[in-house]
C-alpha cells in the first residue's frame, strides 16, 4: 500500500493542486455497455414485466457494485476523499439517468411526450453538491411541469421501487416549481435542500426555471435571516454533540469541526454571496488563497475519512469509533513514530483539521458581519453604529471596545508590536470583553509574527501568566488563544500536544482540551465554586503558598504526552525550561517540575493501595515531604481526574483522596499515631450514634459498634446511616443474606449493597454472579463487620436510561447474588457459557503484567495485575487466588477505560507474607493465563452455598475494592 498521509502536512498540497473536475470517470462505469444491456433486456422481455424487472435489477446491481468497488480501489490509490465522493455521485447520476430513460421509453412508452409535459429529476441536499459517500442517502427532487403527463407519477413510483430494491436509501419529494417556492418560504430545511438543486436528467428547462425563480423570489434580500437560521442550527447541533470538537470518538459528519460545518459555510456563501464555487470567495475577499486551500484540504480529508468508514463498516457509519480508527489509519497510510502510534498520529491530524474548520468558520463569520454592515440601509446603519458605538478601552491604545467586543484600533497593531498578540487576550480578560470576529481573524492571520523574540519577551510572559492565573475566566481566554493558534505558537511545547489524542477509552478528550478543562476546574476551586463537589480542595486552596506555580503545573502537567519517554519525567524537564521564561523563581520552577513529575502519584496510591496500611501512608509522605506540596498535589489530582471526561470523577474517588490526604497530613505534621486515628474513628462512631435519634438506645449502640475503623473513617455518614438501617431491617426479617439497590444516574452507575456471612471466596462469588448477570463491576467497597459478616457495596455500569428499568435490573442482579451465596443456583455453567461467547475488543491491546512485592506493606504481599478489561475477569482472578490458598485481605480494582490495574493484599492461610520466589512465579503464571484468556473453562469448583459457612475465625480485616469508572 502506498504511503498517502504519512505526515500531517503530507503531500495533499500537490494532489489538491489538480482540478477535481478533471476526474476520469470512464473506469467507474461503462455507460454504453449498461445502456446496451438495458436495450437487450427491453427486447428480450418485451411483454414480460416481472422477468424484465428482475433482469433490470440484476444489471443495475452488478454495475453499481463494480463501480463502487472501483471507487474504493481508486481511493486507496490517490487518497482523495472528495474525488471518491464525486465518483460515487457520478455513478449514481448515470444509474438514475439510464433508469429514467428505460422507464420512460420501455415501460411507459413516453419518448414522444412534449417537452412541456416532461418531468425533471434533480439531486438536492448533499447529493446536489455532486458528492456522495458510499452509504449516504440519495436525495431526489422530481419536478413536475404545470401540465403533467398521466404517466408521471407511476413512472416516478417505478423508479423509486427499483432504487429501493437496489438497496439505496432514497429521500424524495415530488413537487411542482410553485410548490418548491411556496414550501421554501416556510421551511428552512426545504430551502437549504433546494439551494443545492442539481440537474440529473429529464427536462433541463424545469430545473433551470426553478433555480432562477428560487434565486429571485427566495434568496434575494433574505441573506441575514438564512445565515441566522443556519448558524443557530449549527450551534444546536454542536450542543447535542457535547459542544467540543475534541471528543476521542468524533462524528465526522455532524460533529463540531466535521463535514456539516464546512457544508454550512458553503450554504451561507452560496446563499449570501450568490456564488457557485468556493473559489469565488477569494475573488470577493472573503477568504485568502491560503484559506481556500485550507478549506479544500479539510474537505478532502474529512471526505476520505468518511468514505473509508462507510466502506469498512458497510453502512452509513458517521462516528469514528475506536473499533475502526486503527483500520482507517492504516487505509490512510499512517505509521508508528516514537511516542505516537499510527492511530494517534491519524487522530491528531483529524483534530487539527477539525480545528482548521473552526478557524475558517471564525474568518468567514467576520467577513459576513462586515458585509452585512455595509449592506444596511442608511437609517438602520446609523442605529447600528449608535448601539455598537466604538469606545476606548482605559489603558489601551491598541484595542477598542466595539459593542462589548474587543477590536483592533488599527489594522497594523500586531505588525507594529507582535507582543500585542498576547496583550489582546489580557486586555479582553481584565475588561470582560468578547472577541470581535475580525480581531480573531487578524490574530489567526498574524501567527507568523510570534517568533522566539516574542516568546522570550518579558512583557509577553508576564501578560500570559496574568491570563493563566486570572481570578475571572482563565480557561475561556486560554481556549480562545488555543483556537486562534496563539497558545501553541507562544508555547511550542503546548503546540505539540494540540489535537493529540490518546488511543484509549479512559481519556475522553484530546490532550490540549484536557489541560484547558483542568485549568477550568482549578479556577472553580480557586473561586470556591466547587465546594459541594470538592470540599477539601476548596478548603485547602486558600492555604496554598504558591498559587502561580499550581496554575502553571495544572496547565502543563500533560504537556509531554506523545513522546517516547515517560510523560511525567519529560514534563518536569519542560517545566524547568519554561519556568524561568515565564518569570518564575528557581523555587517556583522546581515546585512546578515536582508537581508534574508526581501528578499521577496521589491518584494511583489512593485507588490502588490500601490506605489502612500504615506503610502506604509512610511511603507516600516520604515522597511528598511537605504540607504545601500535599495541598497542591491534592488539588492537581482533583483537576486532572475531573478533566478526563464526564462521569470519571465520583464521590468515592473524592473520599479516597480525602482519606489519603488526612492520613498523610497527620504524619507530615508529626501527629500520626494510633491515638489520633482511634480518636477520629471514635468520633465518627459518635456522629453515627447521634444521627440515629429515632432508634432505641440499644439499637444505636449495637449497630454503631458493628464497624471497624476503616469503615468509620472512609464511608460517608449518609451511607453509614443507610447501611445501619439496611442491616437492622435485615436482622428483624431474619435474613442472613440481603441486598439493597440504589441508582446513580448522573454517574451512569448502579450501586448494589450485599449483606452476607463472610467467607474466603465471597469476593469471587459476588464477582462471578455479576459476570453471569452481564454486569461489569467498576467499583466496590467491601468491609467486614465485628460479628463476622461482610458488608459489600458493588458499583456496576448502568445499562438503562430509565431509573425504574435500571432498578429492576439491579434487583435481579442482587437476587442472583443471593441465590448463588445461598446455594440455590450454581454459577459455573452460566459463566462458562459466557466465556465461550466472550468477545474481546479488537481496538485495544494491553500486555498482561503481574508485579508481586513484599516492600509495599509490612503485613501483606501485594500483587498488582495490569491487563485488558473484560466481563468476568475479576471473578476469575479471585478464584485463582483462592485456588492458590491465598487469603485476600484487601483488593483494589481500578479501571482506566479498557485497562484494569487490580491490586490484591494477600497472605497465606496462616497470615504470613509469600516470600518463596518459586511461588511468586507460579502465582504470576496462573494470573497471566487468566488475563491472556488462556485459562481453562471455569471449573465446577464454587461452593454450593456459603451462607452456612461464616468465616468467623478469620481476622477482622476490612477489605475494600475501588476502581476508576
Automatic annotation (TrEMBL):
It catalyses: [protein-PII]-uridylyl-L-tyrosine + H2O = [protein-PII]-L-tyrosine + UMP + H(+); [protein-PII]-L-tyrosine + UTP = [protein-PII]-uridylyl-L-tyrosine + diphosphate. It comes from the Bacteria. Its EC number is 2.7.7.59, 3.1.4.-. Its cofactor is Mg(2+). Residues 1-394 are annotated as: Uridylyltransferase. Residues 511-627 form the HD domain. Uridylyltransferase (UTase) activity is inhibited by glutamine, while glutamine activates uridylyl-removing (UR) activity. Has four distinct domains: an N-terminal nucleotidyltransferase (NT) domain responsible for UTase activity, a central HD domain that encodes UR activity, and two C-terminal ACT domains that seem to have a role in glutamine sensing. Belongs to the GlnD family. This is Bifunctional uridylyltransferase/uridylyl-removing enzyme. It comes from Pararhizobium capsulatum DSM 1112.
Amino acid at each position: 500500500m502506498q504511503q498517502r498521509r504519512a505526515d500531517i502536512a503530507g503531500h495533499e498540497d500537490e494532489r489538491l493542486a489538480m482540478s477535481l473536475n478533471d476526474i476520469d470517470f470512464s473506469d467507474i462505469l461503462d455507460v454504453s455497455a449498461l445502456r446496451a444491456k438495458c436495450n437487450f433486456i427491453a427486447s428480450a422481455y418485451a411483454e414480460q414485466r416481472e422477468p424484465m424487472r428482475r433482469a433490470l435489477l440484476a444489471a443495475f446491481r452488478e454495475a453499481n457494485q463494480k463501480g463502487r468497488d472501483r471507487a474504493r480501489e481508486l481511493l486507496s490509490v490517490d487518497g482523495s476523499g472528495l474525488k471518491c465522493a464525486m465518483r460515487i455521485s457520478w455513478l449514481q447520476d448515470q444509474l438514475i439517468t439510464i433508469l429514467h430513460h428505460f422507464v420512460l421509453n420501455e415501460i411507459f412508452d413516453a419518448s414522444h411526450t412534449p417537452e412541456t409535459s416532461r418531468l425533471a429529476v434533480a439531486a438536492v441536499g448533499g447529493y446536489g453538491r455532486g458528492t456522495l459517500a458510499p452509504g449516504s442517502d440519495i436525495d431526489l427532487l422530481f419536478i413536475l411541469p404545470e401540465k403533467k403527463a398521466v404517466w408521471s407519477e407511476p413512472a416516478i413510483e417505478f423508479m423509486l421501487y427499483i432504487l429501493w430494491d437496489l438497496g439505496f436509501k432514497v429521500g424524495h419529494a415530488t413537487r411542482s416549481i410553485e410548490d418548491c417556492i411556496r414550501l421554501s418560504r416556510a421551511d428552512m430545511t426545504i430551502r437549504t435542500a433546494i439551494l443545492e438543486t442539481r440537474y440529473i436528467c429529464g427536462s433541463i428547462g424545469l430545473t433551470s426555471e426553478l433555480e432562477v425563480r428560487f434565486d429571485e423570489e427566495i434568496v434575494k434580500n433574505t441573506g441575514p435571516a438564512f445565515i441566522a437560521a443556519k448558524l443557530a442550527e449549527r450551534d444546536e447541533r454542536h450542543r447535542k454533540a457535547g459542544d467540543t470538537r475534541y471528543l476521542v470518538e468524533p462524528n465526522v459528519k455532524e460533529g463540531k469541526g466535521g463535514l456539516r460545518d464546512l457544508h454550512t459555510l458553503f450554504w451561507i456563501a452560496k446563499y449570501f454571496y450568490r456564488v457557485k464555487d468556493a473559489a469565488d470567495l477569494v475573488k470577493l475577499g472573503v477568504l485568502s488563497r491560503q484559506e481556500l486551500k485550507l478549506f479544500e484540504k479539510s474537505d478532502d480529508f474529512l471526505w476520505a475519512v468518511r468514505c473509508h468508514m462507510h466502506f469498512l463498516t458497510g453502512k452509513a457509519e458517521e462516528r469514528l469509533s475506536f473499533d475502526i480508527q486503527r483500520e482507517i489509519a492504516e487505509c490512510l497510510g499512517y505509521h508508528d513514530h516514537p511516542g505516537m502510534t499510527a492511530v494517534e498520529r491519524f487522530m491528531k491530524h483529524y483534530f487539527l483539521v477539525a480545528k482548521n474548520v473552526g478557524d475558517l468558520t471564525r474568518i468567514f463569520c467576520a467577513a459576513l458581519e462586515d458585509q452585512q454592515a455595509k449592506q444596511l440601509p442608511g437609517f438602520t446603519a446609523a442605529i447600528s453604529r449608535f448601539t455598537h458605538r466604538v469606545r476606548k478601552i482605559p489603558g489601551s491604545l491598541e484595542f477598542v471596545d466595539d459593542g462589548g467586543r474587543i477590536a483592533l484600533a488599527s489594522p497594523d497593531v500586531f505588525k507594529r508590536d507582535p507582543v500585542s498578540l498576547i496583550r489582546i487576550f489580557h486586555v479582553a480578560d481584565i475588561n470582560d470583553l468578547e472577541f470581535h470576529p475580525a480581531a480573531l481573524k487578524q490574530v489567526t492571520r498574524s501567527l507568523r509574527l510570534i517568533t522566539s523574540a516574542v516568546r522570550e519577551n518579558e512583557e509577553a510572559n508576564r501578560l500570559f501568566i496574568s491570563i493563566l492565573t486570572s481570578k475571572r475566566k482563565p480557561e475561556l481566554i486560554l481556549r480562545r488563544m488555543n483556537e486562534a493558534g496563539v497558545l501553541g505558537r507562544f508555547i511550542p511545547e503546548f503546540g505539540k500536544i494540540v489535537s493529540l489524542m490518546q488511543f484509549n477509552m479512559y481519556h475522553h478528550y484530546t490532550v490540549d482540551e484536557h489541560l484547558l478543562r483542568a485549568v477550568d476546574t482549578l479556577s472553580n476551586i480557586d473561586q470556591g465554586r466547587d465546594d459541594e463537589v470538592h470540599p477539601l480542595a476548596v478548603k485547602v486552596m486558600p492555604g496554598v503558598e504558591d498559587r502561580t506555580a499550581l496554575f502553571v503545573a495544572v496547565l502543563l502537567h500533560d504537556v509531554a504526552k506523545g513522546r517516547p519517554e515517560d510523560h511525567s519525567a519529560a514534563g518536569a524537564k519542560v517545566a524547568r525550561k519554561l519556568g524561568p521564561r515565564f518569570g518564575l523563581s528557581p523555587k517556583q520552577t522546581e515546585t512546578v517540575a515536582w508537581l508534574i513529575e508526581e501528578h499521577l502519584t496521589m491518584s494511583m496510591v489512593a485507588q490502588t493501595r490500601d490506605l489502612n496500611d500504615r506503610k502506604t501512608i509512610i511511603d507516600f509522605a516520604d515522597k511528598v515531604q511537605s504540607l504545601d506540596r500535599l495541598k497542591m498535589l491534592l488539588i492537581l489530582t482533583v483537576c486532572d481526574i475531573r478533566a478526563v471526561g464526564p462521569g470519571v470523577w465520583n464521590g468515592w474517588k473524592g473520599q479516597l483522596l480525602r482519606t489519603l490526604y488526612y492520613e498523610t497530613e497527620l504524619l507530615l505534621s508529626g501527629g500520626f499515631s494510633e491515638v489520633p486515628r482511634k480518636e477520629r474513628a471514635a468520633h465518627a462512631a459518635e456522629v453515627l450514634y447521634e444521627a440515629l435519634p429515632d432508634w432505641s438506645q440499644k439499637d444505636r449502640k449495637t449497630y454503631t459498634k458493628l464497624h471497624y475503623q476503616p469503615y468509620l473513617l472512609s464511608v460517608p455518614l449518609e451511607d453509614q446511616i443507610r447501611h445501619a438501617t439496611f442491616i437492622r431491617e435485615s436482622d428483624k426479617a431474619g435474613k442472613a443474606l440481603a441486598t439493597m439497590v440504589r441508582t446513580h444516574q448522573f454517574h451512569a452507575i448502579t450501586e448494589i449493597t450485599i449483606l452476607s456471612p463472610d467467607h474466603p471466596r465471597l469476593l469471587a462469588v459476588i464477582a462471578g454472579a455479576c459476570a453471569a448477570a452481564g454486569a461489569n463491576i467498576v467499583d466496590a467497597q467491601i468491609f467486614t463487620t465485628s460479628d463476622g459478616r461482610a458488608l459489600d457495596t458493588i458499583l456496576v455500569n448502568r445499562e438503562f436510561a430509565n431509573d425504574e428499568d435500571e432498578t429492576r435490573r439491579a434487583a435481579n442482579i442482587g437476587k442472583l447474588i443471593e441465590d448463588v451465596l445461598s446455594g440455590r443456583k450454581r454459577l459455573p455453567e452460566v459463566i462458562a457459557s459466557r466465556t465461550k461467547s466472550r468477545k474481546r475488543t479488537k481496538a485495544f491491546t494491553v500486555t498482561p503484567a503481574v508485579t508481586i512485592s513484599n516492600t509495599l506493606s509490612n503485613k501483606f504481599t501485594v500483587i498488582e495485575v495490569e491487563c485488558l478489561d473484560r466481563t468476568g475477569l475479576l471473578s476469575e482472578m479471585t478464584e485463582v487466588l483462592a485456588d492458590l490458598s491465598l487469603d485476600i485481605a484487601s483488593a483494589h480494582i481500578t479501571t482506566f477505560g479498557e485497562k484494569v490495574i487490580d491490586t490484591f493484599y494477600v497472605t497465606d492461610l496462616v497470615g504470613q507474607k509469600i516470600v518463596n520466589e518459586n511461588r511468586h512465579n507460579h502465582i504470576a503464571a496462573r494470573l497471566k493465563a487468566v488475563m491472556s484468556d488462556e485459562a481453562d473453562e471455569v471449573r465446577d469448583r464454587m461452593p454450593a452455598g456459603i451462607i452456612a459457612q461464616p468465616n468467623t475465625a478469620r481476622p477482622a480485616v476490612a477489605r475494600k475494592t475501588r476502581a476508576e469508572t
